[in-house]
Amino acid sequence: xxxxxxxxIQLALIIFGAYILFQILKKILGGSWSTEDIVxxxxxxxxxxxxxIIIMLVQLRSDQRYLRRDxxxxxxxxxxxxxxxxxxxxxx
Length: 92
Prior knowledge:
The chain is mainly alpha-helical. It is 90% helix and 0% strand. The protein is built from two helices and no strands. Helix 1 (3-28) packs antiparallel against helix 2 (35-91). The longest helix is centred in the C-terminal third of the chain and has 57 residues, at 35-91. The termini are far apart.
């Protein structure tokens, strides 16, 4: 997923979280949303945070997959080099 899209989602979640915090403070001081509306907003905020964490986790796992493949290729190449070196040293 594009980094810009992820940043936009994160920024929207931060703004939404700040707005919910503002509404909670207003509720404590005696006004604004009803309790049910605040709970629903918190659930939506939590869902957005979980969605963002899942996106980051998927990106990290896919990055590791490429790294693992490259490392396996390097290991095979190194084993081949070591085997060829032993043969050359043994023939001398």
